[in-house]
Amino acid sequence: MLRVLMFLVPLALSVYAFIDCISTKDDEIRHMPKPLWAILVLLFPLVGSISWLIAGKRRSPAAEGWSGVRADRSRRQWVAPDDNPEFLKSLDEDGKSDKDDDQKRDEP
Q1: What is the CA radius of gyration of the chain?
Q2: pTM
Q3: What is the DSSP letter of 70?
């Protein structure tokens, strides 16, 4: 069983790193061009995959927050629909238009 894991874990890691590398946008890649990263991951599966995961891709601010790097707080955060004033206004507008439609149907 241990022999199988010693083969499958690096294989799964390199497959994940290769797919992540080729699906990443060019402006999110650091240090080397994308084709060079892909070749590195394919030729040196374990070292290339770990290198890609650590240094190859620019990570999101939320993911970098755990490492002590301050995340950019100026980005918009997700707001629940019942706390979002724009969403509540849209419900009021929809409700008013539904009432108007009902009144028009009721009139002869």
Answers
A1: 25
A2: 0.54
A3: P
